[in-house]
Amino acid sequence: xxxxxxxxxxxxxxxxxxxxGVLRKLEIMPPQKRSTVGNIYLGKxxxxxxxxxxxxxxYGAEKNGFLHRDEIPSYQLTKKSDGKASIGxxxxxxxxxxxxxxxxxxxxxxxxxxxxxxxxxxxxxxxHGIDYVGVSKKFKNDDLHKQWRETALQYKKPxxxxxxxxxxxxxxxxxxxxxLTILRELYKGLEIKAASLKAPSLLYERDTYLDMIISExxxxxxxxxxxxxxxxxxxxxxxxxxxxxxxxxSHVSGKxxxxxxxxxxxxxxxxxxxxxxxxxxxxxxxxxxxxxxIDVNSGKFxxxxxxxxxxxxVNQAAAKEVARQLRLRxxxxxxxxxxxxxxxxxxxxxxxxxxxxxxxxxxxxxQVIGFTELxxxxxxxxxxxxxxxxxxxxxxxxxxxIGKIExxxxxxxxxxxxxxxxxxxxxxxxxxxxxxAVADVLLxxxxxxxxxxxxxxAKKLFLSFIPGPRNAYSIKRFGSIQEIGRAFE
Length: 489
Hints:
This protein is α+β, with helices and mostly antiparallel strands. It is built from 14 helices and 24 strands. The strands form five sheets. A six-stranded mixed β-sheet has the order 16-17-18-19-21-20, covered by helices on one side.
């Protein structure tokens, strides 16, 4: 049975989804990094890029958003079949547009925006600015699937897109019309509000936390939810009753709800690069802005059968765990997985099949490309929000985010070269502030190199130490031995 733990009482909101006690999905939303996906703004076009068929939009964020021509209503409703129309025909610099965030800012990239404004419920999706009708492929009755497509086509307007979801399958046409009317009025209200505001302005803010919980609950008829925010608890109880769901909801107060249900320990593992498999193998995750690389290793697993079967068993376990970790860590974009090399091609295909099967449980669109000639599995996962790593970490002030710092040797020899540049000056001494590890390299074991170095730079060397792990130095001043001696004291 699916179980959800919602920690909404503190400023950092956390929602966990568990199956049989195992963490399957985790959403963490620090207040300063709250997702804006779904928010709607009145934006202003700051730059038109004909070569990219796109524009930059000032919608009030630190970075301007990116809007492609295909996401502009005027293009969607009048586009030519060859798709070669210039973006300048549909939008101009300085123009105001209603835009919705489709993907959050990530790294150096601004948010991805759309002008096709979407409002979504568990039974009906309304999109303004596109002529489209879709019906869920999960309908069990083909006749009802056809009937709902015809109904949606009958009631939609030319500038509307409608997607009928699975939960609408057994509802009445009256319910459909009632929900369509509410969504239309919601969009109309945005247009009225926008007419009285200057760009950039926020028009509609999505309730990220409740939407996320409701979305999870909508996909399952029954389950358990423990939540520590009373107002949210009341709203969700009301939603369950209105939508005739069999979810059991409990309000918990005065406790760390994640610790109470043994989720905290599982969350802490998400920050680690190494993930151990039950059979003794392990995965190594390396995230970069361009792509993510996952390395599969046999580790402690030696197996009791032939080598090929042993390696295949590790790869099978890794394929399942990779899919789970991608969802947990919200890793998106290009993903490269270096599975252990296998001799039999059928085993490679079985690994692809496992990844695809596990990926089908993910709400983000995943595309499995296949193995390269070097045996690397290529895949992509749709990016809509920052990864867990981006949410929970900041660039290291020591290594500037590369994950490594300069060695004591590198820094010491750089200092030596800089001191040698001053060897012909008249100064008698120099004061250098330096980290202990760098000083040890610079002066040699038991300062055996000090005399040689002082002769080379033609100066007496005074050292003071910088605390902390960073390998660094700072030349404080040059002068006479007496001056530096007094300053050094």
